[in-house]
Amino acid sequence: MSTHDAGAAKDARRDRSDWGTRELELLYDAVRDELSVYNGIGAYGISDEAIRTLAWAVTSRIDCAFDVAWSPDWVTEGHPHLWRDDVGWHALCNECLQERPPMLSEDDVATWFDAHVTESHGRQSTR
Ligand SMILES: [Zn+2]
Q1: Distance 55 CA to ligand 1 centre (A)
Q2: For residue 93, which of 74, 112, 113 has the smallest C-alpha distance?
Q3: Residue 2 Cα, ligand 1 centroid: separation in angstroms?
Q4: Residue 125: is it exposed, middle or buried by C-beta count within 10 angstroms (0-12/13-18/19+)?
Q5: Of 106, 66, 65, 101, which is closest to residue 84 (Cα–Cα)?
Q6: What is the mean pLDDT of the chain?
Q7: Which of the 8 DSSP states describes residue 119?
C-alpha cells in the first residue's frame, strides 16, 4: 500500500501537498485531468468526486510500485508547462517544479515564468 491509507480515498478533494512529493502531485493532477477529458469525450457522466477518487486510486497504486519522475517531454526545453482549468491559467517551471497560482490569462502566467527564470535560475527565459 502507498503512503496513503485507503480511508483517504474517501476524501479525494485532498490538498495537493498531501502526496508528499511534487512529482506525485503532478501525476495525480495528470491522471485526474486525463480522466476528466475522457469522461467528457465519452459522455460517461462520471461525477467530479468519482473522477478525483479514481485519480487518487490510480496514483496511489503507481506510488506503490514505481518511482515517479517528472518528465515533461511534450514541453520544449526552457519553456513552462502552461494549462488552463476552471480557476484560470497555470504555469509550471519544468526545472524546479514551482507553480504559479492561477491567473486570468496565458500571457500573465507566461510573464510570471519569464520573471521566475530570471529570479530563481539567474538567466533570461528563452521562451
Ligand atoms: Zn524554476
Answers
A1: 26
A2: 113
A3: 28
A4: middle
A5: 106
A6: 86
A7: H
